[in-house]
Design brief:
There is one protein chain. The chain is mainly alpha-helical and about 100 residues long. The protein has a single domain, classed as Arc Repressor Mutant, subunit A, CATH 1.10.10.1410. It is built from four helices and no strands. α1 crosses α2. The chain is rod-shaped.
Length: about 100
């Protein structure tokens, strides 16, 4: 996971994501380097548009939050309607007490 963070940091800084740079970042963070993991990461990132992937990941993670917000809004609407209904009932009871 540390190597992925290193690659993301390099991407954010606009630096080349290559074995040497990933190793430098990982060493600076105190990580013991596993050459095979670094090589595997670099190979798997060939041809990947990291910006686009991050944007897609953000959209996917935001979707449940939007759905959750919609559900909460719907619940509030139902609660508001209940409150209105209860107020009308109370008012009707008050009127019935006046006019018997």
């Amino acid at each position: 996971m540390e190597y992925i963070y290193a690659a993301l940091l390099l991407h954010k800084l606009g630096k080349d994501i290559n074995e040497e740079n990933v190793k430098k970042v990982a060493v600076a963070a105190g990580v013991e380097i596993d050459e095979s993991k670094v090589k595997s990461l670099i190979a798997s990132l060939k041809g990947v548009d990291i910006s686009k992937e991050l944007e897609n990941a953000s959209l996917v993670s935001a979707a449940p939050a939007v759905a959750d917000a919609s559900e909460k809004k719907e619940e509030k609407s139902k609660d508001a309607l209940k409150g209105t209904s209860e107020k009308h009932e109370a008012a009707a009871e008050g009127l019935s007490a006046l006019f018997g």
